[in-house]
C-alpha cells in the first residue's frame, strides 16, 4: 500500500546533539534516517514502529525507519525527518532564482518495504 | 616607493601655515613631512600642479552596522557601479553605499585621506572597527552614539553628574571612539516605547528629562574632559519645517562652550510643521558666524541617488511614508537605533531643490570657512563622490547659475541664492575640505603641510574645470607612501584608527555592570572592545592628557 | 549580408558573451569579431575560441549551436536582430531597449530582465523571472514584448511596469508578482499566488487559477480591448481560439493590500 | 580528571545563532577537553563536550596523509587552475577566517557563497525587496509584550532563545517576565516549542503565505472571506483575534524560521512577514527577525556584505563582485554543473544538498576544511582538519541580531585554525595569479599579499 504524503525535513535537538559527535557517527546516521509519522497513518499503512519505508518522488528515493507520533502532535499526511543524507535524496536542485531548493513540504510516495535491504 | 620623497615645483595650498599658492618643495621622511631630505630622495615633479593636504571628511557614514545593512539592502545600487580590483587593490562595489574597499579607494581617488564615521552604536563598535580594518588608505575614526543611552539618561535624571561624566569616558574608552555623538537626543524612547512617536521640541520632557538637558550635559562633559573634537550633535526635528528654532536653541544651549552641529542644512528650515518649508539659512549661519565656539558641517544635498541612513529612526519612518520605498528600522538595546531607506533627490521637487539651495546659501554666507565644513552627510545628502561637483558649485558662479536654472524655481525664489555672487577660492576650498575639519577634529598632524604633519598629500593638475580637477588627483600620498601616481593605483595602505582614551575612574564599572546584567543581552565582560581590533592606530590626546 | 556565429567548442563552464549584440558587432570584420572578449568562467578569452565567425553584421546576427550555457546574449541591445537556432543561457536580452531576438529552442532564467523596449520571441520553453526586475530593483520590465510559445517557471513579470509578456504554455508561481503596470497573457495554466502585491496592470489566463485572499471577483464580461491583444498574439503564431477572442472573462481585482487597481482576467467559457 | 583545570568565564557558545556568551567552561587542560559547560543548553553541552582533539591527520590528499604545506600548495594550484571555482560554507568559522575566504575568491575570480543561501537566503532577498523593521535581542527582552514565532521550532533548534532573550526574561519594561508577555506560535505541526505559547495556530502545510497575506489585509482594514479557513486551516476569527493582539501590543516581534524560507514561496513568505511588520508600524512599534541557525552565519552575511556589497552568492568572474541568487548560489552552481572546483569551509553540503548537486561534487576536485570528518571531507580531494572556533580559537562572531562578540579560547588544539589555513592559501594563490599574469609586485606593496 502506498500513499502520497508531505515530508517536512527539519532540525531536532537530538540531531543537534548527535551532530557534535560527528556526522559519520552511528548516532547521527540513526537520527537522520528516522521518519516520524502520525500513528493513525502508520496503522493504515500497516506499519509498525521500526519498520522500513521507502520514500520516493520524481527526484529520487530513500529508505528510512519509521516511528509513530501522536495524531495531536503530527497531523495526518505529514512526515517529519531530521535533515540529512536521506532527505537530500528527495530534494530537487531547481532553486527558482533564489539559491534555495525546496527543502520542506516535499510530496513523497510512502510505501512499506517488505523485503529488508541488506 | 622610498621612505624619503621630495615634491618639487608644486603650488602649495596650506592655510594652517598661511601658504596660498606659493611654489615650494615638500620633503617627506618616514610618513611625515620634514624640513629637508637628502638629495637622493625620490622626486615628484609637480610643475603646473596644486599641492594640498589630503582631504578630511568630518562627517560621513562609511562603516558599521547601519552602513552594512544599507549595503545588503541595495544590490540594485551596487550592480550598476562595480569597482574592479587592480594588481594592488581589492575589488568591490560602489553606488551610494560602497563596499569597504571601494570606500577607501574611492576616497583616495578624490584626494581624501581621512574620514570620520559619524554614528556608531556602542554595541556596534566592534563591527565598525572590523570594517575599518578592511577600509584601505584612509585614516578613520568614529563618533559613538550616547545621546539616547538609557543608562546615561538615568544618571542625568537622578542628577548623578560625576558618575555621568565617568560613564561617558568609560564608554568612549570601551568602544575606541573619537568623540560623542548625539542624534535626536531624547527621541528614541518615544519611538520605541510609545508607538512610534517622537519629541517635538528641545524642552519637551520625557520621563522628566528634556533634549536640552541631555545636550547640555554632553557638551559640558566633553568640554570638561578636553576631547579633541566636541560633542557632535544631530539636532532634534531634522528635516521638519520650522526646525531652525530647535537648531538655534541647541546652539544657544552650548553657551560659549565648543559644540559641533552636524549637517546644518537639514536643520535650517522655516515654515510650519506639516507644510512646505522655506529657508532660514541666513538665521542659522548668522549665529554660526558670530559664535566662534560653534563648528558645523553643511550636509549639502546633491541631486541624484542617496541613501537615508540615520540613527534618527523616527525621521526615516516619516520619509518612508513619503517615498513608499523599502524601509529598514533597527532598534539597538539600551543605546540607539537607526532607519535606512533608498532616496533620490530630484531637481523638479520643491523640497529637494530647497534643501540643495539652503546648503549652498550656508556655504556662500559663511564668514568663517574654518568652521563651516564641506560634507554631504554621505550618503544622506548624496555620495562623497559628488564632492568635486559641490566644489565646482562653490568655485564657479557661472556653473552654479546654470544649475540653478535647471531646478525648481519656486524653491529658489524662497532663498537668497540668486543674489549670492561669492566664489570660493582654492585657498578657501582647502580650508573647508582639509584645514578646517582637521582643526575642528583637533588633529594637529593633519590638514597642513608643515614639518611634523602626516605626509597625507594630494597633488592635482590645475584645471579650470574644478569638478574635473578634484575628481582626478595625479598623485595621492598617504603616510608618505605613493598610493596613486599618474592617476593609477601604485600601492596600498591600511590606514589607521584614530581614537581617544579619556581618563576615568575604574570604579564606574561597578555602577554600570548591574545595569548590563539586567538589561543587556551581552555579558558585561564581553562588551568592551579589545585592543586587538585597533591594528594600526593613533591615540589622539585630550586636553587633559597633555 | 548577415553575420553568422557558429559554436564550435562547447564551453566547460558558463560563457558570458554580452559582446554578441548587434550594437557591438555592426560593421566589425570577422577577424576583429573573433578577437573580441568573452568570459569563460573567470578566463578572459576571445570569442573566436568558441565561435566560428562568418560574414559581417549589418544589423542581423545568426547564432547556432548548443548555447544553453552561453549567457548575456544581446544584453543592453538597442537595435538589429538576433536569431538563435537552439537553446540559450541566462540573461538573454538583459536590459534591452530595442531590436529583436528570436530563439528557436529553449531559454534559461532571466529572459529580458528590466527590458525597456524591443521584442523577444522564444519558440520553446523558458525559465524563471522572465521580464522581471533583478533582485532589489524597484522596477522590472518597462516596455517591449516577450513572446514565449512554451512554458515558463516562477515570477514571470516580477515588478513589471510596462509592455507585453505572452506565454503560450503554463507559468509557475507568482506570475505578475509586484506588478506596477503592463500586460501578461498566459494561454496555459498559471501556478499559485498570481498577482500578489500588484498595484496596476493586467494578467490574463485562459484557465481557472487559484486566487490569493486579497483579490476579489468583480464580474464576468467581454473585454473588447482584449480582442486586440489576443488577435495580435495569434498573428504571432500562438494558439488562440475564436471563442477565446470573443469570449467572456471573469474579472478579479487586487491586490487589496496595495492599490487594488490590478486585474486578473480568467477565461470563463473553459 | 586531571589536576590541571582551568575555568573560562563568559565564553561563547557558537553552536546556534543565539551565540550565548555567558558560558562558564571547566577545562581539563591535560586531557584537552571541556568537562563542564555551565549555563549551556542541551545542544551547547554537546557542542562543548564533543569537541575534543581528534586523531585524524591535519591534511590529506585523496585520503592519504600529507603535510599541511603540501595540501596548501595543492589547494592553491587547484583553485587557480579552475575557471569556475566556488567557495562555500563559512557559517561555522570566525569572521577573521571569512575575510580571508572572500579575499581568496576575489583573487582567483571565483564565486563565494555561504550556508545563508540554503537557510535564510530567501529572507535576504525579501529584505532587499521590502526592507525590515528589526532589533537587537535585548529590545525583545526589555520591551516585547507580544512575541510571535512563525515556522520555527526554537525549543529544538535554539533552546535558550525563549529563556535568555524572548519569553521568560524580565526586562526594563517587562518587569514580570513571562507574565507580561503574550506568546504565539504558528506552525504546521505541534512542535516541541508549542507548550511555551499562549496561543498555537496550526496552518495547513504550504499555506503560510495565504495566512500572512490575509493578516496584512486585515491589518489594513480590508475584508477577508471566511473561506480562508477552508484554504489555510485557520479561521477568520482566529486571524482577527491575532490582528487585534498585534495592533494593540506596545512592542511586538515576529520571529520566523525555515518553515517559511524552505517551502514553496520562499522569499515571498519571508517578505510577507517583513511587510506585515512594516504595516503594523502604522499602529504600534513592531519588529521582526529571522531566527538564524549557525553560530556565525550572520557574521558571514556581514563580512561578505562589507567586502563585496552583497550578502551571499557573490561571483568575481569578471574581476568585481556580482550578485544573483539562482545563478551564483551553490546549489545552482553545483546542480547545473557550472563549478569546476570547490572549497567547502566548515560545512557539509555532501550530506544535505539536493542529490544532483552532490553528484556533481563527486566529479570535481573538492577541498574541505572542517573540524570533524563528514560526508564532504570523505569525498574531498584535499581535506584539512582544523580547530574549533570558540573552543580552540578566539576571534569574532555575530549573533543572529548582528551583535558582534569576541570569543574566548578554552584550550589549544594541535590543529591549525581556518584563518591560518586560509591565509596561507590566499598568499599562495596570489603568488600564482601574479605569476600567471606576469605581474611583479613586492610583498607588502599590495593589500592582498
Question: Top keywords for this entry?
Answer:
heterotetramer; A: 118 residues; alpha/beta; Barwin-like endoglucanases; 6-stranded mixed β-barrel; 4 helices; 34% strand; globular; D: 449 residues; Rossmann fold; Dimethylsulfoxide Reductase, domain 2; 3 domains; 9-stranded mixed β-sheet; 5-stranded parallel β-sheet; 18 helices; 20 strands; 37% helix
Can you describe what's shown?
The complex is a heterotetramer of chains A (118), B (546), C (270) and D (449). Chain A is α/β, with parallel strands linked by helices. Chain A has a single domain (2-113), classed as Barwin-like endoglucanases (Beta Barrel). Chain A is built from 4 helices and 6 strands. Chain A has a 6-stranded mixed beta barrel. The mean pLDDT of chain A is 92. Chain B has a single domain, classed as TIM Barrel (Alpha-Beta Barrel), CATH 3.20.20. In chain B, the strands form 6 sheets. An 8-stranded parallel β-sheet of chain B has the order 8-11-12-13-14-15-16-20. A 7-stranded mixed β-sheet of chain B has the order 3-2-7-21-22-23-24, with helices on one face. With 270 residues, chain C is mainly beta. Chain C has a domain at 109-267. The termini of chain C are far apart. With 449 residues, chain D is α/β, with parallel strands linked by helices. Chain D has helices at residues 42-50, 68-81, 95-108, 121-130, 137-143, 154-157, 161-166, 208-219, 228-232, 236-248, 258-261, 266-280, 297-308, 330-335, 349-352, 355-361, 375-379, 418-437, and strands at 5-11, 23-28, 33-38, 59-61, 64-65, 85-89, 111-114, 131-135, 146-150, 182-187, 199-202, 251-256, 285-290, 314-315, 322-323, 341-345, 366-370, 382-385, 396-398, 404-406. In chain D, strand 19 (396-398) and strand 20 (404-406) form a beta hairpin. The relative contact order of chain D is 0.18. The interface between B and D is large, with 73 and 71 residues.
Amino acid at each position: 500500500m502506498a500513499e502520497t504524503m508531505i515530508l517536512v525535513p527539519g532540525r531536532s535537538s537530538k540531531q543537534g546533539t548527535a551532530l557534535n559527535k560527528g556526522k559519520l557517527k552511528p548516532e547521527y546516521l540513526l537520527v537522520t534516517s528516522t521518519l516520524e509519522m502520525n500513528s493513525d497513518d502508520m496503522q493504515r499503512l500497516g506499519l509498525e514502529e521500526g519498520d522500513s519505508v521507502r520514500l520516493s518522488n520524481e527526484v529520487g528515493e530513500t529508505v528510512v525507519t519509521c516511528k509513530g507520533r501522536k495524531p495531536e502532535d503530527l497531523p495526518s499526511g505529514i512526515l517529519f525527518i531530521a535533515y540529512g543524507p536521506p532527505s537530500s535524496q528527495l530534494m530537487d536542485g531547481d532553486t527558482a532564482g533564489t539559491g534555495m531548493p525546496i527543502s520542506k513540504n516535499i510530496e513523497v510516495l510512502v510505501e512499506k518495504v517488505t523485503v529488508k535491504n541488506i | 616607493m622610498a621612505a624619503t620623497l621630495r615634491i618639487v615645483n608644486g603650488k602649495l595650498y596650506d592655510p594652517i601655515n598661511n601658504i596660498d599658492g606659493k611654489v615650494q618643495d615638500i620633503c617627506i621622511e618616514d610618513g611625515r613631512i620634514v624640513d629637508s631630505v637628502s638629495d637622493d630622495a625620490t622626486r615628484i615633479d609637480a610643475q603646473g600642479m596644486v599641492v594640498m593636504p589630503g582631504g578630511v571628511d568630518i562627517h560621513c557614514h562609511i562603516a558599521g552596522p547601519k552602513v552594512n545593512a544599507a549595503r545588503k539592502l541595495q544590490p540594485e545600487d551596487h550592480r550598476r557601479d562595480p569597482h574592479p580590483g587592480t594588481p594592488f587593490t581589492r575589488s568591490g562595489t560602489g553606488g551610494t553605499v560602497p563596499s569597504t574597499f571601494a570606500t577607501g579607494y574611492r576616497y583616495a581617488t578624490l584626494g581624501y585621506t581621512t574620514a570620520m564615521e559619524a554614528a556608531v552604536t556602542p554595541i556596534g563598535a566592534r563591527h565598525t572597527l572590523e570594517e575599518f580594518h578592511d577600509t584601505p588608505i584612509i585614516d578613520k575614526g568614529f563618533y559613538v552614539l550616547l545621546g539616547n543611552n538609557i543608562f546615561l539618561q538615568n544618571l542625568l535624571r537622578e542628577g548623578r553628574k560625576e558618575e555621568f561624566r565617568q560613564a561617558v569616558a568609560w564608554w568612549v574608552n570601551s568602544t575606541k571612539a573619537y568623540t560623542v555623538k548625539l542624534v535626536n537626543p531624547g527621541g528614541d524612547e518615544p519611538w520605541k516605547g510609545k508607538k512610534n512617536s517622537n519629541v517635538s521640541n528641545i524642552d519637551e520632557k520625557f520621563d522628566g528629562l528634556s533634549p536640552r538637558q541631555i545636550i547640555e550635559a554632553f557638551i559640558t562633559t566633553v568640554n570638561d574632559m578636553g576631547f579633541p573634537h566636541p560633542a557632535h550633535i544631530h539636532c532634534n526635528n531634522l528635516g521638519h519645517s520650522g526646525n531652525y528654532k530647535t537648531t538655534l536653541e541647541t546652539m544657544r544651549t552650548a553657551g560659549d562652550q565648543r559644540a559641533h552641529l552636524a549637517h546644518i542644512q537639514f536643520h535650517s528650515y522655516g515654515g510650519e510643521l506639516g507644510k512646505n518649508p522655506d529657508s532660514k539659512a541666513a538665521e542659522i549661519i548668522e549665529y554660526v558666524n558670530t559664535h566662534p565656539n560653534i563648528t558645523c558641517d553643511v550636509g549639502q544635498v546633491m541631486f541624484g541617488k542617496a541613501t537615508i541612513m540615520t540613527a534618527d529612526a523616527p525621521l526615516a519612518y516619516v520619509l518612508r511614508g513619503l517615498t513608499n520605498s523599502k524601509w529598514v528600522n533597527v532598534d539597538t538595546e539600551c543605546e540607539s537605533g537607526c532607519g535606512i531607506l533608498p532616496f533620490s533627490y530630484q531637481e523638479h521637487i520643491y523640497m529637494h531643490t530647497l534643501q540643495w539651495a539652503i546648503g549652498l546659501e550656508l556655504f556662500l554666507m559663511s564668514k568663517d570657512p574654518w568652521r563651516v565644513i564641506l560634507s554631504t552627510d554621505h550618503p544622506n545628502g548624496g555620495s562623497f563622490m559628488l564632492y568635486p561637483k559641490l566644489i565646482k558649485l562653490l568655485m564657479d558662479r557661472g556653473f552654479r547659475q546654470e544649475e540653478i536654472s535647471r531646478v525648481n524655481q519656486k524653491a529658489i525664489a524662497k532663498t537668497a541664492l540668486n543674489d549670492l555672487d561669492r566664489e570660493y577660492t582654492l585657498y578657501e576650498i582647502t580650508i573647508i575640505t582639509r584645514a578646517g575639519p582637521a582643526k575642528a577634529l583637533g588633529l594637529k598632524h593633519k590638514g597642513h603641510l608643515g614639518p611634523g604633519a602626516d605626509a597625507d598629500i594630494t597633488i592635482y593638475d590645475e584645471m579650470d574645470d574644478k569638478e574635473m580637477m578634484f575628481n582626478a588627483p595625479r598623485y595621492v600620498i598617504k603616510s608618505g607612501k605613493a598610493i596613486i601616481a599618474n592617476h593609477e593605483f601604485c600601492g596600498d595602505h591600511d590606514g589607521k584608527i584614530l581614537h581617544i582614551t579619556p581618563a576615568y575612574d575604574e570604579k564606574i564599572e561597578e555602577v554600570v555592570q548591574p545595569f548590563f546584567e539586567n538589561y543587556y543581552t551581552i555579558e558585561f565582560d564581553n562588551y568592551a572592545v579589545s585592543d586587538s581590533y585597533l591594528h594600526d592606530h593613533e591615540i589622539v590626546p585630550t586636553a587633559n592628557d597633555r | 549580408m548577415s553575420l553568422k556565429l557558429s559554436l564550435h567548442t562547447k564551453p566547460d563552464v558558463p560563457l558570458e558573451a554580452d559582446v554578441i549584440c548587434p550594437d557591438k558587432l555592426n560593421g566589425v570584420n570577422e577577424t576583429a569579431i573573433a578577437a573580441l572578449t568573452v568570459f569563460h568562467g573567470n578566463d578572459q578569452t576571445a570569442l573566436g575560441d568558441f565561435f566560428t565567425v562568418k560574414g559581417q553584421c549589418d544589423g542581423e546576427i545568426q547564432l547556432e549551436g548548443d548555447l544553453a550555457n552561453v549567457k548575456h546574449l544581446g544584453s543592453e541591445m538597442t537595435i538589429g536582430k538576433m536569431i538563435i537556432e537552439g537553446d540559450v543561457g541566462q540573461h538573454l536580452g538583459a536590459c534591452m531597449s530595442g531590436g529583436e531576438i528570436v530563439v528557436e529552442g529553449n531559454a534559461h532564467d532571466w529572459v529580458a530582465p528590466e527590458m525597456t523596449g524591443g521584442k523577444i520571441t522564444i519558440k520553446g520553453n523558458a525559465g524563471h523571472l522572465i521580464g522581471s526586475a533583478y533582485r532589489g530593483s524597484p522596477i522590472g520590465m518597462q516596455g517591449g514584448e516577450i513572446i514565449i510559445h512554451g512554458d515558463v517557471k516562477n515570477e514571470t513579470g516580477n515588478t513589471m511596469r510596462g509592455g507585453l509578456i505572452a506565454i503560450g504554455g503554463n507559468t509557475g508561481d507568482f506570475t505578475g508578482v509586484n506588478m506596477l503596470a503592463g500586460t501578461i497573457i498566459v494561454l496555459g495554466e498559471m501556478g499559485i499566488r498570481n498577482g500578489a502585491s500588484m498595484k496596476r496592470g493586467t494578467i490574463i489566463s485562459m484557465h481557472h487559477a487559484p486566487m490569493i485572499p486579497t483579490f476579489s471577483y468583480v464580474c464576468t464580461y467581454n473585454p473588447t480591448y482584449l480582442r486586440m491583444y489576443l488577435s495580435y498574439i495569434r498573428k504571432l503564431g500562438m494558439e488562440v481560439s475564436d471563442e477565446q477572442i470573443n469570449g467572456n472573462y471573469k474579472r478579479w481585482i487586487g491586490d487589496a493590500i496595495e492599490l487594488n487597481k490590478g486585474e486578473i482576467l480568467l477565461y470563463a467559457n473553459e | 580528571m586531571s589536576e590541571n583545570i582551568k575555568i573560562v568565564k563568559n565564553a561563547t557558545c557558537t553552536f546556534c545563532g543565539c551565540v550565548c556568551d555567558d558560558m562558564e567552561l571547566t577545562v581539563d587542560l591535560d586531557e584537552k577537553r571541556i568537562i563542564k559547560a555551565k549555563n549551556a543548553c542541551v545542544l551547547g553541552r554537546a557542542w562543548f563536550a564533543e569537541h575534543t582533539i581528534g586523531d585524524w591527520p591535519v591534511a590529506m590528499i585523496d585520503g592519504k596523509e600529507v603535510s599541511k604545506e603540501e595540501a596548501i600548495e595543492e589547494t592553491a594550484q587547484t583553485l587557480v587552475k579552475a575557471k569556475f571555482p566556488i567557495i562555500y560554507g563559512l557559517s561555522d568559522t570566525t569572521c577573521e577566517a571569512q575575510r580571508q575566504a572572500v579575499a581568496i575568491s576575489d583573487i582567483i575570480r571565483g564565486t563565494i557563497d555561504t550556508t545563508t543561501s540554503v537557510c535564510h537566503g530567501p529572507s535576504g532577498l525579501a529584505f532587499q525587496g521590502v526592507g525590515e523593521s528589526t532589533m537587537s535581542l535585548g529590545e525583545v527582552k526589555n520591551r516585547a509584550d507580544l512575541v510571535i514565532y512563525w515556522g520555527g521550532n526554537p525549543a529544538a533548534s535554539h533552546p535558550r532563545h525563549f529563556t535568555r532573550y524572548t519569553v521568560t526574561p524580565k526586562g526594563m519594561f517587562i518587569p514580570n517576565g513571562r507574565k507580561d508577555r503574550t506568546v504565539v506560535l504558528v506552525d504546521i505541526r505541534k512542535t516541541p516549542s508549542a507548550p511555551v505559547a499562549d496561543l498555537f495556530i496550526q496552518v495547513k502545510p504550504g499555506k503560510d503565505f495565504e495566512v500572512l497575506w490575509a493578516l496584512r489585509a486585515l491589518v489594513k482594514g480590508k475584508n477577508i472571506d471566511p473561506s480562508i479557513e477552508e484554504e489555510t486551516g485557520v479561521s477568520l476569527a482566529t486571524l482577527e483575534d491575532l490582528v487585534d493582539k498585534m495592533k494593540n501590543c506596545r512592542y511586538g516581534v515576529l520571529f520566523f524560521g525555515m518553515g517559511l524560507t524552505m517551502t514553496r514561496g520562499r522569499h515571498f513568505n519571508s517578505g510577507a512577514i517583513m511587510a506585515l511588520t512594516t504595516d503594523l508600524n502604522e499602529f504600534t512599534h513592531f519588529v521582526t527577525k529571522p531566527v538564524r541557525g549557525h553560530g556565525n552565519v550572520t557574521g558571514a552575511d556581514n563580512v561578505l556584505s562589507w567586502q563585496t556589497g552583497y550578502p551571499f552568492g557573490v561571483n568575481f568572474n569578471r574581476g568585481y563582485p556580482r550578485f544573483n541568487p539562482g545563478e551564483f548560489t551553490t546549489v545552482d552552481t553545483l546542480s547545473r554543473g557550472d563549478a569546476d572546483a570547490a572549497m567547502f569551509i566548515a560545512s557539509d553540503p555532501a550530506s544535505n544538498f539536493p542529490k544532483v548537486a552532490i553528484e556533481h561534487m563527486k566529479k570535481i576536485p573538492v577541498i574541505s576544511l572542517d573540524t570533524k570528518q563528514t560526508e564532504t571531507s570523505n569525498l574531498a580531494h584535499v581535506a584539512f582538519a582544523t580547530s574549533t572556533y570558540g573552543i580552540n580559537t578566539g576571534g569574532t562572531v555575530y549573533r543572529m541580531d548582528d551583535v558582534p562578540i569576541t570569543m574566548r579560547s578554552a584550550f589549544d588544539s594541535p590543529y591549525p585554525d581556518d584563518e591560518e589555513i586560509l591565509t596561507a592559501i590566499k598568499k599562495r594563490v596570489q603568488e600564482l595569479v601574479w605569476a600567471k599574469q606576469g605581474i611583479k609586485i613586492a610583498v607588502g606593496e599590495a593589500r592582498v599579499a
